[in-house]
Amino acid sequence: MTNSVVDAPPAQVPDELTPGHSRWHGLRPYLPLVALVVAAVLPYSTVNLPGIFEGPLNSPGTLQLLAICLVFGGLAAGYDLLFGRTGMLSFGHALYFAAGVYGTDILVTKAGLPLWQAAVLTVAGGTTLAALLGAVALRTVGIAFAMVTLAFAQVGAILVARDFGGLTGGEEGLPLDVSGLPSALVGVTNTVNLYWLALAYLALVVLVVHRVSGSPTGRVLAGLRDDERRIGVLGLDPYRFKLVAFTLAGGLASAGGVVYVLIVGGASPHITSSELTLSLLVMVVLGGPGTRWGPVLGGVLYMYLDHRLTAFGSSDAVDSLPAFLSHPLSQPLFVLGTVFILAVYFFPGGVASLRTRLTPLLTALRPPR
Amino acid sequence: MNTVVLLTLTGLGLAALYFLVASGLSLVFGLADVLNFAHGLFLGVGAYATWWAAGNLPGAGPDGLGFVVAVLFGVLAGSLVAVLVELVLIRPLYSRTIEQVLVTVGLSLAGVALLQATWGADPRTFPRPAWSRQVTSVLGAQVPNAGLLLIVAAVLVLGALLAFLRWTRYGLIIRAGVENREMVTALGIDVRKAFTLVFAIGGAAAALAGALGGVYFGTVSPGQGGSLLIFAFIVVVIGGMGSVVGSAYAAVAVGLLQQFVNYYGTSGLGDLCVVGLLAVVLLLRPQGLAGKVAHA
Fold first, then answer.
1. Where would you tag: which of A122, A225, A268, B160 has the fewest CB atoms within 10 A of its CB?
2. Do B286 and A274 touch (CB under 8 A)?
3. What is the pLDDT at residue A4?
4. Chain A: nearest CA to B189, how far in angstroms?
5. Given an 8 Å threshold on Cβ–Cβ distance, is B230 in contact with A281?
6. pTM of the model as a whole
């Protein structure tokens, strides 16, 4: 396929479409690295950003919020491997995340295992679970697949809520027993280590998703998204490739659960609900499905807004509005849901596509030279 | 024996609730290929509108004829919201399945949050007619009247739906559209009018489920629709998308299974059995008990 007999003629690129050779252009490949370094040294800053965060940047509260945002950025990037890159609409991704959270929590708190053993066992278990359930669910396609994954995740939610064997703590959740954890991960003063852990998780997910989507397997996955029948005609088995993507995404999600339980210090049943999967979907669509940074941005922004809109909703500015405005605005989910619907209509590519969408507007506004 | 009768009748009551939600979902999916996550919202709207009407609407009240007026108001409100959702949000995305699902997901999040913002997150006591709180003796078992009311309502809705589908012109169009939408369009019939109609019917049935579910549970809360919706989805898939009769059979199977296993086994085991039933049906008969194969 690749070694075609006739060489294609060199493409004629119009002058105005060749990218300008500015200094900026040479730097672009290194921007992710720069962003990573900036994010890594962020906890050393004591800058106060009133209105954006409640305390200075290195205060434990702000760092915890940032860490949660980073974990969800990673989760959204992992979910995008299914939705944006392979075209699988799974409504059960919360199950594998919850497996990571509850698995670690139960193994550490109830079984008394050291953290690293619990983490390894949990991620292995979460990946196996994804492989097994994916093997069943992938026998269906499209909407039926969405339904089956939703039902499987519902089983997880019921198991956690009904508290079989007294393992999960039921409705009240299960606080993490910190006595056996490494001391660097425990306590308010060590929040910064958790922040770095979350950052490392995000970097790992972005790296894995990037490597996979650049590999031959990733091209097959993109092909499955665009035209599954054609992949079948080419002699490749769609089922196996989809199962690989599903298993990998499940494993990444359970790893995210391990990090999340350390940051939050316990497990609560709401993370097993289908609403978590729905919010992952919202994050990916808001950010831009199938792009490298879109889902990450979407996840970070969504979690940030979800936390901060609560404070915004109870602020004086909103309270002084008439009741029919202030009550809905005090509900983060109302604002996010509305923004999401608008995004589906008017910005199908999400945040990541804003640049290309705004460029014509900006060029039109720029004074002629 | 008493226990079996009681469990059967309460199970059928649950099945009636599932059927009322699932029949609309199934028709909407079968005809318009829309997986409607906002269906739980219609249920919430119906429940809250009934609750509001019983307290505030002149002529409506918590008892007697006033209660009927209140329920009618709730059903009308649910139907109206469903039609608005179809016209404003779903129609522009005609035949773009994934986007339609995404919009209904967003709507379910925003709508439930809006209900919560307006009436608070805590459950509200539902106005119940006095007789619905009493029990009737059936074959020696004391069955709550609210459950019987649900069963009667669901049977009436099933009969009305079947009669509508079988003997009216629009029913014919809907049946034909579920079978082969392209062909109906090719014959020069505007199938989109039928979409709106199906949304109105589904919204009305869901709102009725909300109102009668409020009587059954005694309270109404914003999240009620969402938890019922997942089981309604399961009923739709087991019954076969687009089939009202299939939904009815599946609802009865799911309701009875859940009630019996939850009583004789551990609480919660019944819910797991339902999902197991779903997995078995999907693996052995992916098109459901009756109905067409679910396409992407």
1. B160
2. no
3. 46
4. 27
5. no
6. 0.82
